User: Which sequence fits this backbone?
């Protein structure tokens, strides 16, 4: 990764990062803190946010703004704090989310409601609150966390995958519409990353990477202008390729993969 490019991209920037209390978000916070930036970190747990801050470099000014991002009012309060302190946002990384799988023996709509609320609607609230601040920046970037699980329908991921597909679709449209306001929109699609979220998985996770490796991919991707930041390539390109298969073959392969899990 080109250190000079990273400095140019993040030094002097005002950054809001959600889901910074653990996993990928914590690793991204630590990586960004090496640059001289104003870093606003959000998640529900103040205690875990403090732990993230304690691992950050002193190069950045760290501000903790805890809150439940499923509430519109929390997003508004956080952005109004940023507005009062700096009056603008250069980069919003909306990463907070969770994952629940669907159990076909107890098909439960509340899992779908929870996934859409925690992953998709909370991001919509974040965008709504962040947009006026991003519009005050002369190099604004809006980055949202999706997943390779949003590319195709994966058994048990019916709810999680749908929320991530919704995010991908929304951000694709915003990529075009927000370009009129000079806001660069990007989507992050990781494969499996070792975090608290995946520690609960009871199946093999191919091409699993660390949160630190994921953070390097994300920082590097945010120095470029490509829409999609996807990694590790052996996982993301594999699934993109699978999505191109004729449907009978694709469904047969997915059925086969279920037998091996
Ligand atoms: N790990 C993977 O393999 C993987 C792959 C693809 C995509 N992703 C996505 O990456 C993102 C981060 O996941 P992770 O793996 O790093 O999991 P994680 O360690 O469980 O982190 C999730 C983060 O989201 C925050 N969060 C969850 N619900 C929230 C809420 N209602 N309000 C505010 N913050 C909330 C959590 O903080 P609090 O609990 O303190 O609120 C935590 O900081 C998620 O969107 C996930 O879907 C992960």
Assistant:
């Amino acid at each position: 990764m080109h250190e000079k490019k990273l400095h140019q991209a993040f030094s002097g920037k005002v950054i809001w990062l959600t889901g910074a209390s653990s996993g990928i978000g914590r690793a991204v916070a630590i990586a960004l803190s090496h640059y001289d930036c104003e870093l606003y970190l959000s998640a529900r747990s103040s205690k875990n946010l403090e732990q993230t801050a304690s691992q950050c470099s002193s190069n950045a000014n760290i501000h903790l703004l805890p809150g439940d991002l499923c509430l519109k009012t929390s997003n508004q309060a956080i952005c109004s704090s940023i507005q009062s302190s700096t009056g603008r946002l250069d980069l919003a990384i909306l990463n907070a989310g969770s994952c629940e799988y669907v159990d076909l023996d107890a098909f439960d709509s509340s899992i779908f409601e929870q996934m859409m609320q925690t992953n998709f609607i909370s991001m919509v609230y974040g965008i709504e609150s962040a947009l006026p601040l991003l519009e005050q920046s002369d190099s604004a970037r809006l980055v949202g966390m999706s997943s390779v699980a949003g590319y195709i329908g994966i058994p048990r991921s019916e709810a999680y995958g749908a929320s991530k597909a919704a995010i991908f679709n929304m951000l694709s449209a915003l990529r075009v519409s927000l370009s009129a306001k000079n806001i660069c929109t990007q989507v992050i699609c990781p494969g499996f990353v070792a975090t608290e979220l995946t520690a609960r998985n009871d199946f093999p996770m191919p091409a699993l990477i660390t949160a630190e490796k994921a953070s390097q991919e994300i920082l590097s991707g945010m120095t470029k202008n490509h829409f999609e930041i996807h990694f590790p390539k052996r996982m993301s390109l594999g699934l993109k390729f699978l999505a191109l298969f004729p449907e009978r073959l694709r469904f047969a392969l997915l059925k086969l993969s279920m037998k091996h899990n």
Remarks:
- The CA atoms of residues 74 and 114 lie 17 Å apart.
- The chain has a mean pLDDT of 96.
